[in-house]
Design goal:
Length: about 750
């Protein structure tokens, strides 16, 4: 927000408001005269204006307010009068003259910075947000007025409340002529079926959209056909308060075209959704209106029609079209069932599990895990976009400025205590926690040097070991060391698991060195700059990351510069890294696992059965090496590496469980202290059962995924660990439950004894 402070001189009050604005993060401008205030407001249109009204000696505050209100586009600014504090024994003067002069409210002088901060926050979360919504509504109606299609909004009694310019142009009526008129009577004609309006009413009463052919009568008496969609809009009470009617004019050829319904209204539908989701202010709206709403609508329709006629079609679109065709000749009950099928298919959550209320009540731990880690559909991969924007660009352009060369940049110069731990890094029992200790919380640099050397990364990228050391140091410095879980030790752990998987026979038969290098780099950077909070928390807290990436669905990718690397290879490497890092986002966990099983493991299974029957030993690596299959394998590889804690040796599994629980506890504590919605309420440090959290996590996310991964690359040691760890957590869960039961019984017994003692007394 922008703030304008108008005080004739600097005093305690102006300083308090300035400090308050600065502490909240608002941009503020201080001026000393009415002329400077008018000039600043004309240029910047600040959201909040404070005018000193305590004395008329230097300028007339009310005259200044009227002058500001005379400036164009002032409606969305709040102008506040700073007034004197009156003694409690005197009657306060009326604020009516202030309101009539154009002030929105008054602010009684105070030097308390906390009071000033609270005043700003009340303004932002109250009137300013309401003004922003009104501004967005104005932009939306401006958009509707500039589309070619007819848009009509009625109340629940079908009385017209709004029509756009398209309606006026095509019907000949002005908005004044149709306001509060019955929409059904206005368009009544012999072309529509007698029971059409009853059918529409029945449909919208159920809260469903009606769509179909509709004839509209012009003012001249002529009738023209259109494709119409009537959409119910729910009011505050949940009842249908408004109906929105969208109509696209049709030609005779359109009436004969069975496909017209699919593509004729797509321009309007996309337009409305676009404005509803993205309008953020007048400048943005102006840009859109001049660039493509009115003039470009027909072009978009032509493009949509052209795309529809192409042979290139997404599989889900084919399925939806087949179901639509089947609905036309189906009985009503079947058509209604297919409606539900289409509703599910059009969802973006096809692979996410569904928990009904009973399941949530019976197993809140599992419900909270899925809700907290998976169900954040409106936030597109916040954390991972920052990886490329922040770290790689810095590394590629400023490495020599940030990280000087170091005598330990060579593996041969690594201290013996660290080298002894690294000697068994190829084994699954490798202790990453011990490496964290001996490296003084710098495990990623040293493990990275060792693993990258083993896979020949420096030779492949044509870089020196010093450059690799500097890059690893920079990456590690961008992990948050105060995170108990999402820190550089976790990144090093994921790197170790990735290298271990790359060494398996099946993966080696499919991947080349390019794939290996992409996997290793992705493991190193996959959680860089992670704030130690879930996506849902960032959204609820209005974190700058959430606010930015909720509005801009663009991946700001890396400028990794590899010496001697051609443009084509660079782009391929960049795309691979982006894809794998985004695969670690739990939002798409079930989708990635399902695609892997259906596209990779079923191929292996089918080939195994064929080879057994025909005694043909032809390897399946040829099919698996196809680009699309290698992509699925790489996603699964880094996903398993990212959450491999439950398949680690028991001592490491327990340590990681404590660390992730502590990070979730910290989040819950912060949510409560800031009065935010608690994303995962079960992670309360006073009541949470860590064993239960682990068994739930294994049941929901780990078992099926590692079963599939084990089938692909044979990981018997890991699966044995998983079984043993699960049994351990189950035993701990039962012990904790038993302790809680004994405690409850003991408390009940104490209560009974006390009651008996009271009775005896």
């Amino acid at each position: 927000l922008q703030v304008l402070l108008v005080f004739n001189k600097e005093d305690v009050q102006s300083d308090s408001l300035s400090w308050a604005a600065e502490r909240i993060g608002y941009k503020y401008t201080s001026v000393r005269s009415p002329d400077a205030a008018i000039e600043s407001y004309s240029l910047n249109h600040q959201d909040i204006v404070f005018i000193d009204h305590r004395s008329s000696k230097y300028f007339d505050a009310e005259s200044l307010c009227r002058s500001l209100r005379a400036i164009k586009a002032n409606d969305h600014s709040l102008i506040i009068a700073v007034t004197k504090k009156y003694p409690s024994d005197k009657e306060e003067p009326s604020i009516l003259p202030l309101l009539k002069a154009g002030f929105n409210r008054r602010f009684i002088e105070t030097s308390n910075v906390g009071c000033c901060i609270n005043e700003f926050l009340q303004l932002e979360y109250g009137e300013i947000r309401s003004q922003l919504k009104l501004r967005a509504c104005g932009a939306l109606f401006t958009a509707l007025d500039n589309v070619n299609d007819l848009v009509e909004i009625t109340n629940q009694d079908h009385e017209i409340q709004y029509v756009n310019h398209g309606f006026e142009r095509l019907t000949g009526y002005t908005s004044e002529e149709v306001y509060n008129k019955d929409s059904r009577e206005l368009s009544k004609n012999d072309k529509n079926k007698p029971d059409l309006h009853e059918t529409i009413t029945d449909q919208v009463k159920k809260g469903k959209t009606w769509e179909g052919s509709y004839y509209t009568r012009r003012k001249s008496g002529d009738v023209f056909p259109s494709f119409c969609r009537v959409i119910p809009v729910h009011g505050l009470s949940g009842k249908k308060k408004k109906f929105v009617k969208l109509q696209s004019a049709m030609t005779k050829a359109d009436l004969k075209d069975k496909n017209y319904r699919i593509h004729s209204d797509i321009g309007v539908e996309i337009l409305l959704l676009f404005f509803y989701e993205n309008v953020a202010g007048e400048k943005f709206c102006l840009l859109i209106l001049t660039g493509g709403i009115h003039a470009g609508l027909n072009k978009r329709r032509e493009s949509a029609a052209r795309i529809h006629s192409m042979t290139i079609e997404a599989p889900i679109t084919k399925v939806i079209n087949i179901i639509n065709a089947a609905q036309e000749n189906s009985p009503l009950t079947v058509a209604q069932a297919l409606d539900k099928v289409l509703e599910i298919l059009r969802s973006s959550e096809l692979y996410s599990p569904f928990f009904n209320q009973q399941m949530k009540d019976e197993d809140p731990m599992t419900s909270d895990l899925v809700g907290g880690l998976v169900s954040v559909s409106y936030l597109p991969t916040l954390i991972y976009n920052v990886i490329f924007n922040k770290v790689f660009i810095e590394c590629s352009h400023h490495t020599h400025l940030h990280i000087p060369s170091s005598p330990t940049a060579s593996l041969s110069q690594v201290p013996e205590t660290i080298q002894s731990v690294l000697d068994i890094e190829t084994d699954w029992s490798f202790d990453i926690i011990e490496l964290e200790r001996v490296t003084d919380n710098r495990p990623l640099v040293f493990l990275g040097l060792k693993i990258f050397a083993r896979f020949g990364v420096c030779e492949f990228l044509d870089i020196s070991e010093d450059v690799l050391f500097n890059w690893l140091t920079l990456i590690e410095s961008n992990y948050h060391s105060d995170n108990t879980y999402h820190n550089s030790t976790h990144a090093a752990d994921v790197l170790h698991a990735t290298a271990y998987f790359l060494d398996t026979d099946r993966v080696k038969s499919v991947f080349d060195q390019f794939d290996e290098v992409a996997c290793l780099i992705s493991a190193v950077v996959h959680d860089v700059d992670h704030p130690g909070r879930t996506n849902a928390f960032l959204v609820n807290a209005s974190d700058p990351l959430a606010l930015f990436y909720n509005d801009v669905y663009v991946i700001h990718c890396c400028n990794i510069k590899y010496i001697g690397y051609c443009r084509e290879s660079y782009c391929a490497m960049r795309n691979n890294i982006i894809d794998m890092v985004l695969a670690t986002e739990m939002k798409q966990h079930f989708e990635h696992c399902s695609k892997f099983v259906n596209s990779i493991n079923k191929v292996i299974s089918a080939e195994d059965e064929t080879s057994q029957c025909s005694q043909d030993s032809t390897p399946v690596s040829g099919k698996l090496s196809l680009p699309e299959n290698r992509t699925l394998i790489k996603r699964m590889l880094i996903k398993c590496a990212d959450v491999s804690n439950p398949v680690r040796p028991l001592n490491l599994c327990i340590e990681w469980a404590k660390r992730i629980a502590e990070e979730y506890f910290d989040q819950t504590d912060e949510e409560k202290s800031r009065n935010l919605p608690v994303v995962m309420a079960v992670f309360d440090r006073k009541t949470c059962s860590i064993p239960k959290s682990q068994t739930s996590f294994i049941d929901v996310f780990i078992n099926n995924m590692f079963d599939a991964w084990d089938y692909f690359c044979d990981l018997s040691v890991l699966m044995t660990n998983l079984q043993e760890n699960y049994l351990y957590w189950k035993e701990q869960e039962e012990l904790k439950h038993q302790e809680e039961s004994e405690t409850d019984e003991e408390l009940d017994s104490r209560g009974e004894n006390q009651e008996e003692a009271r009775d005896e007394t």
